[in-house]
Amino acid sequence: MKRLMASCMAIALTMTGMTAQDDNKLTLEDLIPGGERYVAHIPENIYGLQWCGDVCIKPGIDTLYAIDPADGRTTILATRDDVNRALAGTDGSKMSAFYYSRFRNGDTSQLELMTPGKIITYDTGSKTVTGTALFDPVDAGIDYAGDMQRLAYPISGGLRAIDYSSGSERDFIPGGIMSEGEGIVYGTAVHRNEFGIDKGTFWSPDGSRLAFYRMDESMVTEYPLIDIDHRIAREAPIRYPMAGMTSHRVQVGVYDSATGNTIYLKTADPTDRYFTNVTWSPDSKKIYIQELNRDQNHMQLIRYDAATGEMEGILFEERHPKYVEPQHPLTFVKGDDDKFIYQSQRDGYNHLYLYDTDGRLIRQLTSGQWLVNSIVGFDDDGKYLYYMANKEGPLQRDLYRVNVRNGKSERITRHDGVHSVMLSASGKYVIDSYTAHDVPRVIDIYRTDGRGKTVNLLTSADPYRGEETATVEVGTIKAADGVTDLYYTMTKPSDFDPAKKYPVIIYVYGGPHLQLISDVWRWASSGWYNYMAGKGYIVFCLDNRGSSNRGLEFENCTFRHLGIEECRDQMQGVEFLKSLPYIDTGRIGVHGWSFGGHMTTALMLRHPDTFKAGVAGGPVIDWALYEVMYGERYMDTPQDNPEGYDETNLNKLADRLKGKLLIIHDYNDKTCVPQHTLGFIKSCVDSRTYPDLFIYPGHDHNVIGRDRVHLYKKISDYFIENL
């Protein structure tokens, strides 16, 4: 009995020690967005930084500052108390913070502020409110003209345009060629936000005209989502064109603010045609559009007369046997209205090409086995074009400038890592926010010519200082083709012991337009990786072929069979893990969301003896049920590629499920509709296999806000229980 009591006491003391140790570890409330202490565990930042001409504007909650980029001298432009005193004398509304404020036309005296339902103009000199306008946009943000004197946004059934220079505010229903009715939408992003489209209105440079999308969805099949926030649940259908089905039709209208008239560009038949990257000419007289056929393998750059809508000509065309993927509007050369920059992957990587307005190629400005990520802007005289690129390596992102006249490039940023920049109006200064695997965040202002002092706005401390954290390693393995290098990260427990055996969770996305691993803080190892490492797991992440920022061949090798090559690459990662003596090969799990949900399910089904547990969030199960633009770009239509759709349909593999699989889906998912998950559950029931299911009502394709902590508690507990 004494020996038994001593043993029980020893066990109790061990458990007490384990509890105390767990109490010291970071929790989901610390590590997951929406958690009570999450903000304290991410690198510090300055939100809302912007340029007003060559003056850096630094917003805060109570104070708005101006910073001289030459010497860092700081002055106060406005305080929240002063603004709210001025508002009290008008309509009594209040402003909560300066984060969503901006200045008009490079003038630091004319401040625009957002309050509920209104846009306020505040004079920082006189400390008075000089104007108000109603603001009630429908599912879209504000689009400003270049001088900030005009703005537009969608309203129910039409658009609203506000002109501060004349004091006018006008709602207009543009009408058009097709009859109006349910299913007609104005001024919002179209083509399901593919092709880099993120808005639906486009001001001319002089602010006199507004181009906008008009989308007719009336012919598109309704998908029956349900709103449960009523005693009797109500239908809340969305227009959802699936691959191979009838799609919407889009027109581009042009509203003339001087006459109040609207015309529509005389494009080709908008049936099965995509209109992308709407660009105005500098003189506000022409509109350029990159137009694609439904197969998305033939792009035409077409110019239109903005006054009449007449097509003036096809400047040039691009074709590709798989797909052409235009993501960027034209950029006209500053000070030279007859030349523009066009971005293309025609040589295998996204690069910059200089054209004249007749469509003649003048020169390719950048080249090499690296890609341009984005254009930042020009200097004052248009000599230099500034752009972001990963020339230093696939995990990097730096600012460069190219001399438009001779094509010579030079790097501007001074540190390895991933940079995010804003260029001042003259191009003389840059606000550079950068991070690296060992740098939480640094924000500097400096001259783009390398002269002068650097003004440091922020150097973030390690948000984990004093905390027990996981270690993160980065490396490469070969893809399934035996040639291509793939980058991986491995997040290990802080007390990692190579003599022990550890279970491993593979976190996967793997689809187009996303790169999980880059040289950012802790190699982009997320808070959840850190949490699971604290629970004794290793978390492994691999960017397979098909993911982003590695060039066209790397990305389009998955064409017509999404998920197949990607799974092969992920299994190369599994073989690498199995070669490590500290991996428990009988306890391998996998987790991902959206495309990663497809990958998780596919890996569990195609390799049932490898994976013991998985959690698939919002998974695509059958690509025939996915939306038309994305689905047909990468898979063609089900009619043209029946073998590919059949091969990638996970319903047909439901009988192969062996491990424990939890599927999580949002009840109101408008991107990957719930039918994917429900159909798969039915296939599993028919096959006598047994996945688990959890539904999040009220969320759309991901769980955000406070509920996200609940989501990751659910995911974590599932792995702890089953792995």
UniProtKB/TrEMBL annotation:
Gene Ontology terms, MF aspect: dipeptidyl-peptidase activity; serine-type peptidase activity
Entry annotated with the keyword Signal: yes
InterPro entries assigned to the protein according to its UniProt record, in alphabetical order: AB_hydrolase_fold, Peptidase_S9_cat, Peptidase_S9B_N, Serine_Prot_S9B/DPPIV
Domain Dipeptidylpeptidase IV N-terminal stretches: 181-440
Entry keyword set: Signal
Parts of the chain that traverse the membrane: none
UniProt domain Peptidase S9 prolyl oligopeptidase catalytic: residue ranges: 530-722
UniProt KW Signal keyword: yes
A single GO BP: proteolysis
Descriptive protein name: S9 family peptidase
Signal peptide limits: 1-20
